[in-house]
Amino acid sequence: MKFDFCVGNPPYQEQIANDEDSNSSLSKQLFPLFVQGAIEMGAKHVALITPSRWFVADAQDKSFVKLREFIKSNNHIKALHNFRDAKEVFPNTEIAGGVSYFLYDAQYTGKVKFVGSKKTEYRNLFEEGLDIIISDGDYYSILSKVQHYGSFKSLMDLATGRNAFGVVGKKSELEKTTKTKPFTGSVEVFCAYEEKRYIDRSLIKKNVEIIDKWKIFTSKGNGGAGILTEGKKVAILGKSFVGQPNSICTDSLIPIGCFDSETEAINLQKYMTTKFLRFMVGILKSSQNIYQVVYRFVPVLDFTNESDIDWDKSISEIDKQIYAKFGLSDDEVQLIESLVKEME
């Protein structure tokens, strides 16, 4: 059986962990199966409403990556309507990352009509060198300038993945493995809510080369920080802080950097506070989770005293230096300033 048209709003996900000891956010994504199924069954035209987070995110079951790969190899998308604020479509429902619907035409090849709340533009669905979909052309313009400036190195390479040191931050686990006061052979452990505890160094088996270096710690989840939404300023990231040598963190935090000097760590912490960096993170952040991958588009700068950035300036002045460094236009600077709020 074949269909000429397939239109709908398929179920988005199925919760597969509900008990208190499980990760309540763990779920199986269902809508990618419907998208792929509708196209594979030979429908000439497909229009489905889905969460927008599949454009850039990486679901735990890898379904978003697989969906992007499938769409890229079956690139007959004619139009993509994106609503960054899902409440424009579903007023009583909270959907992180917004919602969208696409129009698939099996006979069409060419530029995609991207429709946002403020403008419409025609661009490639996947820009050159990217495996994600950037629905806003202004975002891509900024990203392109950053990536083509000199030799781009990603801050993601200085960040460490989930549970960097193998220390679980759950209170019941911390009480088993850590103490509240330092002892001989102990390492300081940064926990959620800026709590500090201490663990025997011999228990740390992962990323031991970072322990005695300077670095920063930042939260891996911050629902209050928000995501990029038109008309609303958000923080994107929570507060980060410097970690001195002989320190690690629980799985509630992510370490970034592995420096010999305190100066470099302090300057990285300042960089984390800039609107520029948080905007670049925001391009990939589609939920409250802040994993290593969201730093993919953030350029590594020189954090030493020899840097072309004067790190002794105020954060707003540092932002201005960075905008100038990458040649951002007045409109691009205004876009960032309008979307990202100052850190408290």
From TrEMBL:
It holds the Pfam family Eco57I. InterPro entries: DNA_methylase_N6_adenine_CS (IPR002052), MethylTrfase_TaqI-like_dom (IPR011639), SAM-dependent_MTases_sf (IPR029063). Residues 1-90 form the Type II methyltransferase M.TaqI-like domain. Keywords: Plasmid. One of its GO terms (molecular function) is methyltransferase activity. GO terms for biological process: DNA modification; methylation. The keyword Methyltransferase does not apply. This is Type II methyltransferase M.TaqI-like domain-containing protein. It comes from uncultured prokaryote. The lineage of its organism: unclassified sequences, environmental samples.
